[in-house]
Amino acid sequence: MKLYDFVCLGGGSAGFNAARVAASHGLKTAVVDGARQLGGLCILRGCMPSKTLLYTAEILHHARHAAKFGLRVTGARADMPAVAARKRRLIADFARYRVAALTAGKFDLFRAHARFLDPHTVELTDGRRLRAKHFLIGTGSKVSVPPVPGLRAAKCWTSDDVLNLDFLPRSVIVLGGGIVACELAQYLNRMGSRVILVQRSRNIMRDHSEEASAVVQRAFADEGIELFAGTRILGLTQDRRGTTVRFEHDGRVVTRRAAHLFNALGREPNTAGLNLAAAGVRTRPDGQIVINRWQQTSAPHLYAAGDCSGPAEIVHVAIAQAELAARHAARVRGLKPVDYGLLLNVVFTDPQLATVGVLERDLDEKGVKYLRASYPFDDHGKSILMEAKYGYVKVLAEPRRGRILGAEIVGKDAGELIHCFAVALALRATVRDLLRAPWYHPTLAEIITYPLEEIAGRLK
User: Fold this and answer.
1) Domain termination residue (choose one: 338, 363, 383)
2) How do strand 352-357 and strand 404-411 relate by DSSP bridges?
3) Do 23 and 122 share a structural domain?
4) pTM, whole model, 2 decimals?
5) Which residues pair with 129 in a beta bridge?
6) Tens of pLDDT, residues 349-403
7) Which 8-state DSSP code applies to residue 213?
8) 374, 394 in Cβ contact below 8 A?
9) 190 lies in which domain range?
10) Which of 30, 34, 249, 357 is 20 to 30 Å from 382 at the Cα level?
């Protein structure tokens, strides 16, 4: 049996970064990862492949709509084998970099899965046992199969399948309205598939504001996606030619049929096989690990980070949590918990949707007073000449001094623009602080100044 100071279960964004930091503080460290391919969800089956394909689809979309700019582009179409080959090449490069870091010798790597035998011991699938003073659980998440009639027995795609397509599907029914569903539904539609999106909640991307959701829904409809929100799925049937979905919508029963079915109804913590009960680790009913502000579980020497513990399934959050856990285990002084008041979120649809800080509905629910101002992209010079007219910039500020509380951007390159506000929140800046900076004309970024100026004018 091998003895360690710190063992990370999972070699993705959380596990790798926890191991890196733990080893840098002198802890004898190991990573246990039994995945068929090393690299983690973000690199292999999440952020990087999806954004590679979304950008490809955006270029094709612009080519097909070049007439808006007075250009003639004929015959623009997707070469799916070439698209898939480029994606594989790029992701292989990203993965090689991560594998090199995992195998550089700064910590041990075990290519196996683990389960707890007791609070300090895990058994690997190759029969070996490891004992450690501390563990970091970073096993991520997996595709969820909710209790939708007929779904569990149906043959359907997951996001993994869509990201690996090397042919253009004739038609696809997408179940779900979250980030993965919306990003990949638009990808498929722009590449040339007929897409039907069926969402159970009243709005797509229900974690965001109705106002923001409405903008993206309008863009989807304008591009030809058939979208049904606020539905109740009654059942699925399949035959050799495809899938039929029956659901209630606006008081009537609707039937839609497509060649393929894509289950994008969400993900769940990948913790079922860890035997957490033997380690004394408490979980919620969905398998999510309960943690405190230092990432400790109900067994204080065991930490958790990333998708398996929440509260947000976002890579930079997982990394911050994992690094905090490793430093806490190493007894580094002066630590601060992860600040979720700076939570940054981006959805890579077109238009993009991005938020940072508190949401307007959270302030309303708490009865917190604030100032609000917004400005539309369709009244802004740079976005007009770019034919990027969907959306708005919205700013929330404290009413006495104008300190920035949060921001929401729906529109062209929102994921880039939102970082202006991320820095402002981190520095506890006011609207007047931001207005002291120069904003170049004509840029997309200068649209931010209009709601800032409105709030500044309303301050005492």
Assistant:
1) 338
2) antiparallel
3) yes
4) 0.94
5) 123
6) 999 999 999 999 999 999 999 999 999 999 999 999 999 999 999 999 999 999 9
7) H
8) yes
9) 159-265
10) 357
